[in-house]
Amino acid sequence: AGEGARLYADFCAVCHGADARGGGVMAEVLTVAPPDLTTLAAGGAFPTLQVVRQIDGRDPLLAHGGDMPLFGMWFEGDGADVALSGPGGQPMLVSRPIADLVTWLIEVQS
After folding, report:
1. For 22-79, how does the pLDDT look when each residue is reduced to its tens digit (9 = 90+)?
2. Which of 76, 77, 70 lies closest to 30 in space, CA to CA?
3. Is 49 left (phi over 0), alpha (psi -120 to 50) or beta?
4. Cβ of 70: how many Cβ atoms within 10 Å?
5. Could you give the CA distance from residue 105 to residue 30 in angstroms, rounded to a whole number?
6. DSSP labels for the chain?
7. Contact 1, 8 (CB under 8 A)
């Protein structure tokens, strides 16, 4: 989670805000307002698969003229993939940077 917090601060906070609530300095210029990431689990379980697919670009969100995030290629990582618990508990392989970001996002749920 510590590395996820660092990655979030470096790559995500400018749009999603330092507190992950959507009020980053770039939020006002986006065509789609960034969501409050601290409420992703408000419906029950944390939506791991959907979050991973947003981060890695498989479910693009055209908020600023291109896929979200602009840094998706960087998050692919260059090492071995790691397993996260996906829907129903089955393992889902993701890059280490994405696993770190998801772990941090799970920790900041309100």
Report:
1. 999 998 888 888 999 999 999 889 999 999 988 887 777 666 556 666 666 777 777 7
2. 70
3. alpha
4. 15
5. 22
6. -HHHHHHHHHHTHHHH-TTSSS--TTGGG-SSPPP-GGGTTTTSS--HHHHHHHHHTSS---SSSSPSPTTTTGGG-SS--EEEE-GGG-EEEE-HHHHHHHHHHHHT--
7. no
